[in-house]
Amino acid sequence: MAIFYQSTRDKSNQKTASQAILQGLAEDGGLFVPVDFPKLALDFEQLKNATYQEIAELVLQTFFDDFSKAEIHDMVKAAYGDNFDDPEIAPVKQVGQHYLLELFHGETIAFKDMALSILPYLMTQAAKKNGVTNEIVILTATSGDTGKAAMAGFADVEQTKIIVFYPKNGVSPIQERQMVTQQGDNVHVVAIDGNFDQAQTAVKAMFNEADLRDKMAKNGKQFSSANSMNIGRLIPQVAYYIYAYAQLVKKNQIENGESVNFSVPTGNFGNILAAYYAKKLGLPIRKLICASNKNNVLTDFFKTGRYDKNREFFVTSSPSMDILVSSNLERLIFELTDENDQTTGQLLTALSTEGQYQLTEKMLEKLTDFIADWADESEISKEIQETFSKNHYVLDPHTAVASSVYHKLAPEGKTVVVSTASPYKFPQVVLNALSSTAVASDDFAAVKALEELSETPLPRAVKSIEKAEVLHQTTVEVSQMQSEVERYLGLK
Ligand SMILES: *Cc1c(COP(=O)(O)O)cnc(C)c1O
Hints:
By secondary structure, the protein is of the alpha/beta class. It has helices at residues 17-23, 44-47, 52-63, 69-79, 112-116, 119-129, 145-154, 173-180, 196-207, 210-218, 231-250, 270-281, 297-304, 329-336, 341-354, 361-365, 377-391, 397-409, 427-434, 443-454, 460-465, 481-488, and strands at residues 4-7, 10-16, 32-34, 92-95, 98-102, 135-141, 160-167, 187-193, 221-224, 260-265, 285-292, 306-308, 356-358, 370-374, 415-419, 474-477.
């Protein structure tokens, strides 16, 4: 059975998987979701012995069935190989009474690698399949991790260009360094004087602007998105939830069929939505813990059904979660409205015009799969410190949010905390949490101090960037983003 994808804002707008991947966002501003959600009979007696790659193939075959098995096999093989520094790709570690699913073994030591290492293959294969000869321009706003992971994936991939915008003062020094040293002839990195939400809003506006689209088409180009709105980002993430569960069965940590919780450090709602999709597919999940930092718009949403972005924006120690508009939530809203594209469109329009919307009681009652809470800066620091002193395991600040919220909510059953970044990506914050006396002049000094203090091996990705040459130095105002895109692409 072929699976089609429909827009959350116009159900008659339907595409094949490869068309949806190519396009990213729907023309009507909606996000693509499966028309008929697939189900899988997950046999963990068999899956417990499967490799990460085998599980990824199973998931991709199920959702993206207009790609052949051989194509999927080749893409998975290319995406999840020795570009990861752990042969397990997404190992599960036991820490105290719970587990950590480590998603930071890829090239940029954060979880975005899990999807962005395969997206370029999905996209170029999708172009071939649909006879597209246009150059595909990836336009992305990043809160720090997506940008670098996308560039690493797309660098020098034929028939593509990638433009990344990041908030000048909203990413860590190591994150910025990773981005501005990115090599590749088709890569453009731009800092903006603004925050992530402003960058993301401007990027979305460019996707929706008909004039710009026409200009692109005349020049043999078309946009696509590597942001987590792209279904090609979301679906590969379903694999690691299934893999984690299979590993727990294999290690006799859970009974086959026992329900587990996942605590997910959440920003744009992509990672946790993939967990929800895994549950819909048939994975035994009890609760999904939506963990936020001080930008706790989602905590309020799950507790009250009211989404309200009209609030102060905080720059925190977990910058990849400093988000007030969680784009992927639209896919969940669509389900809560019983797949009503009109209502979904109205709610999301209210969000962009008034900055808020309210779910009905009936919709709110359907949110039983989720529980939510948040951690402030001191709780994050305390969580890093306690986890290290009790378990000799170093958490990054994002993972610490999920760990802290898990301890706070203490749900019934076994819990897997989703670990989204290596502590070496945010070394100063982690070092300060672990030691009240350590001082480090910059991120790189902090890396060394952290390595000595924690005896945690240094990932190869960190070793390589210290001496790398800075190749990108453009900064623009938010209002100049489109003109910068047109300039880089030679449209004016
Ligand atoms: C992107 C990111 C998150 C948030 O994930 P979403 O899918 O946007 O909710 C959490 N932690 C890290 C390290 C990230 O890079």
